[in-house]
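Bit of a strange request maybe. I'm writing a small parser for structure token strings and I need a real example to test against, not something I typed by hand. Could someone generate the tokens for this chain?
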Amino acid sequence: MASSLSEDEFHRMQLQLIDLRTKNYEVDGKNKKLERDLFEVNEKLEQLEREYSKAKQALSKSKKAKDVEQLIQESDSLQRKLLSQEEEFRLQNQTLMTELATLVASNEELKKELEKSQSSNSGQSGESKDSVSQEEIRRLQAENAALQKNLKVVAEEVVIVVVVVVAAVVVVVVVVVVV
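Reply from user aminoacidic:
Good idea to test on real output. This should exercise your parser:
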């Protein structure tokens, strides 16, 4: 049984087919437009990612430059401190050397007085002068011992100051080498 279509049904089917083809063309057009838009958006995204990468690298370089600048400033500050400490050390060393020279001269004088006292003791007689001389000798020996002790303390202070200055110089050299 062959079913036959009436002319109205055939005409309606043709209209539906034409309508479907029109809609298909419209959908294809929209699809192509969306594909072009997607391609443009992807290109723009890639461009923005490249710009972001460049900006990130520039920021990284800027941070490194700031770090280097900060290290240079710290190095300059440490060098100024070192120069100040060196000047203080020179002054302190000069003062200690002057004091040391004074103590040595005083020690020499006391030795001479002691020798003079001992030689005059041997030439003089009498127990009272001998006891006075013995007391004078003890006093001079005690004073000599105190001066020797002061001399040792001053020498130790000089050594400590030298060690501190050397340590400061080493720190500055290390900082300069790191920069």
